[in-house]
Amino acid sequence: MTVLSPLQGRHALVTGGARGIGLACAQALGAQGAVITLMGRQAAGLQAACEQLAAAGVTAGYVCGDVARQGEVEQAFAAARAARGPLHILVNNAGQAISERFDRTSAELWQQMLQVNLSGVFHCAQAALPDMLQAGWGRVINVASTAGLLGYAYVSAYCAAKHGVVGLTRALAQEVARKGVTVNAVCPGYTETDIVRDAVANIIRKTGLDEAAARARLAQRNPQGRLVQPQEVADTVAWLALPASASVNGQAIAVDGGEAAA
């Protein structure tokens, strides 16, 4: 007798899916049987990620678009739907972090952080929800950050945006709770990604520390004394997508070694 995977026949779209947490999420969801669409801005990176997933036995394609631009989101989601069917799972992973002292944070930087990290979640959720509501089943999973639960110096715009993602998650979860759709956020601490590598470079530039010392400074925020790994975040995302997680709704789950609990 053939045993179906838990997400067999489900179509999952992962933004920022070419690398890091996004690619790990695609791998974890694909391992549960989901068909994957990766979304990002650069076709070459997305194509390479699809080839990597295919080598691991995961069916995946990609669409190009900037989550900060509503028109591009709508076009990309329409292309994903035409290629692989209605959307059942949305992982809002695309994000960007730029460090700057508050009094030096320009209006342009402020708007950039909001547009990519918060408005992008809004645009993608609006584009995906109609399919989920029609099917009476769906999962919206927003990759936020511990910056959506705590305050960090020198990233006020990023913190504001990620706090907004958590608030949007909680509000939307209430609206769709009786419609078979859940909305949750995963809030990683400092994770081994390009964003952390950029943060390390910034620390080196401003303090003169070497790379090992700069990385240790970030790892110290985690009570476990280490950086979170992308697969750890992805496993939490995949768990939230499972049918067995249907009662988990409106939550902001920290994956941070206990930082947010301190």
UniProtKB/TrEMBL annotation:
Alphabetized UniProt keyword annotations: Oxidoreductase
Family matches, as InterPro entries: KR_dom, NAD(P)-bd_dom_sf, Sc_DH/Rdtase_CS, SDR, SDR_fam
Enzyme class, UniProt record, top EC level: oxidoreductase
Enzyme nomenclature, EC number: 1.1.1.30, 1.3.1.-
Ranges for domain Ketoreductase: 10-189
Domain of life: Bacteria
GO MF, one annotated term: 3-hydroxybutyrate dehydrogenase activity
PANTHER family: 3-OXOACYL-(ACYL-CARRIER-PROTEIN) REDUCTASE (PTHR42879), 3-OXOACYL-[ACYL-CARRIER-PROTEIN] REDUCTASE FABG (PTHR42879:SF2)
Protein name in the entry: D-beta-hydroxybutyrate dehydrogenase
Biological source species: Bordetella trematum
